[in-house]
Structures are given as C-alpha cells and as structure tokens.
Amino acid sequence: MNAKKTTLKEKEALELAELNDIYAAKGKSVVHLNMKKDKPDNATLTKLLLGPTGNLRAPTLRKGKTLLVGFDQETYEKVFG
Predict the structure, then answer these.
(1) Is the distance from CB of 19 to CB of 67 less than 8 angstroms?
(2) Is the pLDDT of residue 51 over 70?
(3) Closest CA to 42 of 69, 71, 16, 7
C-alpha cells in the first residue's frame, strides 16, 4: 500500500499491530515488542506506530507476522537477512 495515497490512522494502525513482533525505530533506538509476551496497551502502540500528524509512520513494512516501523539498518538486516 502506498502511504502517500492511503493514510492509516490509529484504528487501522492498531489493527496492523495484531502480529507476533513489532520493531519500531525512532532515532537511534529500536523498540522490539513480542506481542505474545509483552501485550502493550493501545496508548503504547499508538506512540510507536503513529507520527506527529496522527498517521502511520513511514516507512512501515510487514514481513509475515513481523511489522517494522521506521528505518534501522541493523533491524532490516536481521529481519530480511
């Protein structure tokens, strides 16, 4: 899906988060959530998934049951390597 043409707000972003793992990169830090163990609340997920405009942060990629939000080279290599 092209985020420039279709924006995802909080409801849709939270539906996307119903996976096994989420990696969210912000700056130099990466947060890894194991959704089966961690089970964060919606407010925590919203902070990780949405940007200041209230839309899903870019880039966001899904591989199987893993969601990557933001860009971190090491995380991409780990997931896609």
Answers:
(1) yes
(2) yes
(3) 16
